[in-house]
Automatic annotation (TrEMBL):
Xref: CDD domains: SIS_GlmS_GlmD_1
Protein name in UniProt: SIS domain-containing protein
Record carries keyword Repeat: yes
InterPro entries, per database record: GlmS/AgaS_SIS, SIS_dom, SIS_dom_sf
Source organism (scientific name): Streptomyces polychromogenes
Start and end residues of each SIS domain: 26-170
Keyword Nucleus: no
UniProt keyword annotations, A-Z: Repeat
Amino acid sequence: MSHVAYELATQPESWERAAELAPAHRAVLPRPGERTAIVGCGTSYYMAQAAAALREEAGQGETDAFPASEFPRHRRYDRVVALTRSGTTTEVLDLLSGLREAGIPATAVVGDPATPVTTLANELVVLDFADERSVVQTRFATTALTLLRAHVGAHTPAVVADARAALAEPLPAGLEARGQFTFLGRGWSVGLAHEAALKMREASLSWAEAYPAMEYRHGPVSVTGPGSVTWSLGGTPAGIAEQVLGTGAEWVDGTLDPLAELVRVHRLAVAVAGVRQLDPDAPRNLTRSVILTSGEEAVR
């Protein structure tokens, strides 16, 4: 079994632990009313998007999400939350250093505490039980999101039950042979749709895209047709399923909690990698953390 296959299969247990830990970290996570930004890189950025939308939906306060490299340093926030599995990514460390100089409180949610992030963040939430050996993130990302979801009261045991169902139920037949994948989301699940597409690209080198569900009609549907799949994570606007089926594409209407639907996509990414004889633990051109030195990109 690949590292990524093992890690995606252990997500339900990690989510349970994160939800149990959330109350103990209440003081270092955004408080109701705080103007908050959540940042990350790659997968962590998409989790930040989902977490920001969940916090606003819960009425907890204005919340923005940014890639760490694009954080608007002219804006003032009461708190910044950085999601960083490795704790070594250059853009995150650079941003945290700047926030410390500016006196803006920053909390890092990290998988490995023995990293430079510990000296730059004001506060830490360590999810070392969800850390991963794989390059492709699954377990840490969804566990960090679960922590933030539980923190705003948007997590229930039903989410974990849906995750277990996502691991146990067979995938829709024939998806592994498809050549193009589009994922749709609404509200907080837009970030999950972007993450679903990223997983398909990283693990299986698939052509994969993601859009807010209503935006899909405004151009992207033009590339849908026989041989492609459109998968909805979250509520489906009326008429989209019929439009997709009319193109000859496969339609997957996600009926589980959107985060559990992402687990199904994780499984699909690994399955497609297997069909294409790819190693999901060694994705092309990627490694676990991006570190920039002397203007050039070094990775580890």
